[in-house]
Structures are given as C-alpha cells and as structure tokens.
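Repro:
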Amino acid sequence: MDYVNAFICGGILCAVGQLLIDLTNWTPARILTGYVVAGVLLQAVGVYQPIVDWGGAGATVPLLGFGYSLAKGVAKAVGEKGALGILTGGLTATAGGIAAAVVFGLIAAVLVKPGYKR
C-alpha cells in the first residue's frame, strides 16, 4: 500500500504543477521555486509532515519535499546550535541531494556531446 500512496501523492503534486503550467502565465522557474517555498511554509505550520507520513517518497522526492527537508533541517539545527542553525541547518540536511545533483550533472556533461538542434 505504501507504493500506491506514494504514487497517488506524487501524482497529485505533479498534476497541480502541470495545471499551474497550463492555466497560468507563470514561468516554470516560478512554479519550481514556488513549490520549494510552499514545502518550507507547509512544514513550518505543521501541515506537510502528515502528508509525508502518508505519501512517503511521493511527498519527499518532488520539490515540495526539498523545501520540507530544508525546513526540517533548520528546525533541528536551531534546536541543537541555536541561531547559527538558521544558516547551517538547511544546507546540512540537503547536502546529499545537492552533491548528487552536482555529481550527476558532471557525469552527464562528460558523457554527452552537446550540439545544436537544426
């Protein structure tokens, strides 16, 4: 049942993003950053944790999940380190994902020969 919940949750989040692309004049960059900010805000008010508990990877893998991870990391670091945690918590919590994006981007850049489309 966990797989079904993840599929439904991720599908709903992606469908909302697609609706925003189709029905608004927002650029994809605005929608992406809006999703990250929404994840932070929803975690800050305590709404996103129940969604993560139900949807699992369907809630943590999309961009809302990145914002959720940032907010959760900051909250944990503030509890441990005080005000310094505001600056370090989000980066510490998401360092693995950021590092993976850099490494996979480098691998793709080395393996793929860029060219112009005609």
